[in-house]
Structure formats: C-alpha cells, structure tokens
Amino acid sequence: MTVRIGVIGTGMIGQEHIRRLTHVITGTRVTAVFDIDTARAEEVAASVGARALPSGGEVVDAADVDAVVITSWGPTHAEHVLAAVAAGKPVFCEKPLATTAEDCLKIIEAETAHGTRLVQVGFMRRYDAGYREMKRVIESGAIGAPLIVHCAHRNASVPDSYTSEMACQDTAVHEIDVLRWLLDDEIRSVQVLRPRRTRNAREHLQDPQIMLFETAEGVRIDLEVFVNCRYGYDIQCETVGEEGLVRLPDPAAVSVRGAGRNSTAVLQDWQGRFENAFDTEFREWAASVAAGTEPTGPSSWDGYAATVITDALVTSLHSGETVRIDALATRPAFYGGAGR
Ligand SMILES: NC(=O)c1ccc[n+]([C@@H]2O[C@H](COP(=O)([O-])OP(=O)(O)OC[C@H]3O[C@@H](n4cnc5c(N)ncnc54)[C@H](O)[C@@H]3O)[C@@H](O)[C@H]2O)c1
Ligand SMILES: O[C@H]1[C@H](O)[C@@H](O)[C@H](O)[C@@H](O)[C@H]1O
C-alpha cells in the first residue's frame, strides 16, 4: 500500500521531508501541500506531482491524504495537529508539538478522546544509531545504574534572530527528549548557569549556557549549549554508571594525513549529522501508518513534557534559580511508561 501524505509547511525542513518521502522512503507519496506562502507551496507541489491546496484544513480533509506531516512554524502546529486528530488521521508534527503547555494538553485531551494514538512528534535523535546503541547498553545493565550524564550541544553559528531563550526551546529541547527516553526517567528540576560570554555571539545572546537537570531517580545531567562555537556541529553525550560509562560515537569520518598532520573533519550542520536518523524516523512512522497501528515514536505526552521543561529552563535563565517541575508527575496510562 502507498501511504498518501499531505504536508503543511513547505519551508526548509518541509522541503527536506518532502524529498525524503518522495525519493528515500519506499511506499510513501506526497499528494497535497499547503503553505501560507502560496508561490512556494505551488513550486514545491509541482516538483513532486502534488496539489497545492488553499488551506491546512483542506489538506487534512483531502480524500487522497491518508496521513499528515506538519512542518510549518511552531506557533501554528497546535491548530493543524488538532484538525488532523479531529479527522482521525495519523499526524507527524515537527518539534515543537505546540509552543504552550496549554495547547499541548488540548492535543492530549483530543487524542485521548479519540481512543488511540495518532500523533508523533519529530524528535529524531531517538532514531540515531549511536543513541539507540547507548540506550541498549544502559538497558542491558552493562554499566550499572546511570548516575551522571555529561552532554554538549554545539552549533558553529546561529542567525542574528536566534535569542537566549532559543538555546532552551530550540536547541536543548533535543537533549531533553532524548535523555528522558535514554534514561526512562523524568526530569524534576532544572537550572541555567551563565558562563562568560563568547565575543563571537551578538550582544543580545547569552552564549554559551550550562543547563543542569535532576531526574526523579536522582540522576544529575549537565548540558553545555554553545551555539557560536565556530568549529562545527558537535553533539556529545556520556552516561556514567555504577560499573562503567557509555559515550556517543562521533560520526564516521576518514582520517587524512597530509601537510604534517593527521586529521578528521568535523561536520558543520545538523542536517548531515542526523540525516540517517531522519530517514529511519520516517521509515518507521510510515510503516506504522501503512499497517494501521499506533506510532511508536515520541508521543503527544513527550511533546508536552518537552514544552514544560523548556518553559522551566527559560524561567531559570532569567532568574538563575533552580526550578522544580511537578506537572509531569502523573503520566496518563494512555501514553505508557516514561520516555516511551
Ligand atoms: N527536528 C529538527 O531538528 C528540526 C530542524 C529544523 C526545524 N525544525 C522545526 O520544523 C519547523 C519548521 O522549521 P523550518 O526551519 O522549516 O522553518 P521555515 O521558516 O523554513 O519554514 C516554515 C514554513 O511554514 C510556513 N508557514 C507558516 N505559517 C503557516 C501556516 N499557518 N500554515 C502553513 N504553513 C505555514 C512558512 O511560510 C514557511 O514556508 C519548526 O517548528 C522547527 O522547529 C525541526
Ligand atoms: O533548529 C535547530 C535544530 O533543531 C538543530 O538540531 C539544533 O542543533 C539547533 O541548535 C537548532 O537551532
């Protein structure tokens, strides 16, 4: 069966996913798109033989759309996700699920009332081979109980429009999701520290930032977010356990000897670093849609948890204080165990 997909939002990552669904994943086809930028939507639609429709609602309701992908701006996600849930269609929504915890809760309520899971959120790190192996090692018991996790999330540079809050909402959000999943544990408190600022950041931007987390099981996590590190795109994660540690591998790269040096290149952007993860994410999601089964990836609850935790980080960024998180204490049975 070919899964026919409608895409809402044909900007940068929307076009990436449309390319992926057209040329990389087998058994999927994009049949309809919508973007408030009509010219862009028409151009993208024409390139894959799809129709550009006049609204998101018409994409959701189209007879030749089996499932919906949402890649518009974050504040517009909730409206489109709620429309897809109301139509009973599976929906893949890029992060964030919604920009307010209140809107995330509305989605949870609508999905729960529907009775089966329809929503998957685009936290692609859960599909990265390195993180998957790390989770397997932790679950095997080979390093004993996890005690401490050290992480770094570095971008070479960011646009001038990037704000200090985005370090929490746009950047650290990936670690928040992947750590909840890796540890099968919930974050209970956060604190943001402000180290000396790099001279390479714009005046308005606190860069780097150090974020500290404590989980319900007492695991302590430190995360360095440094988005003007200059040298490349660098994702590090090391989990220290009672009997050993497990570290995320660097992406495979050849070593080059020449001019008196032995060197390996550092990737420059997230597209290259997580390309395989995005492919696997869509392959598994499309397979669940084709089989008519619930998606197994990040759920609406995970989207809600990420928003609650990034809100707490932003509060701490401004106050410097530790912020407790109590809203995640009672996870609905509908969404299974923590980090699943
Ligand atoms: N998983 C990841 O690592 C990752 C990476 C990049 C972006 N994202 C997420 O993907 C989303 C899109 O990001 P982007 O970089 O492609 O942005 P973008 O600005 O390039 O594209 C967004 C598109 O949405 C369109 N749009 C805005 N409002 C709309 C509406 N109401 N209905 C339909 N279309 C609308 C805009 O015209 C634009 O074409 C964001 O939520 C972002 O956080 C996720
Ligand atoms: O939107 C991007 C993207 O999510 C990247 O994975 C992250 O490294 C960047 O910091 C963020 O701005």
TrEMBL record:
SUPFAM superfamilies attached to this UniProt entry: Glyceraldehyde-3-phosphate dehydrogenase-like, C-terminal domain, NAD(P)-binding Rossmann-fold domains
Major enzyme class: oxidoreductase
Keywords annotated in UniProt: NAD, Oxidoreductase
Reactions it catalyzes: myo-inositol + NAD(+) = scyllo-inosose + NADH + H(+)
Superkingdom of source: Bacteria
GO molecular function, one term: inositol 2-dehydrogenase (NAD+) activity
InterPro entries: Gfo-Idh-MocA_inositol_DH, Gfo/Idh/MocA-like_OxRdtase_C, Gfo/Idh/MocA-like_OxRdtase_N, MI/DCI_dehydrogenase, NAD(P)-bd_dom_sf
GO biological process, one term: inositol catabolic process
Residues covered by the Gfo/Idh/MocA-like oxidoreductase C-terminal domain: 135-324
Pfam families per the UniProt record, alphabetical: GFO_IDH_MocA, GFO_IDH_MocA_C
Domain Gfo/Idh/MocA-like oxidoreductase N-terminal stretches: 3-123
Entry EC no(s): 1.1.1.18
Similarity comment: family membership: Belongs to the Gfo/Idh/MocA family.
Subunit structure: Homotetramer.
Function: Involved in the oxidation of myo-inositol (MI) to 2-keto-myo-inositol (2KMI or 2-inosose).
Listed name of the protein: Inositol 2-dehydrogenase
Species for this entry: Streptomyces paludis
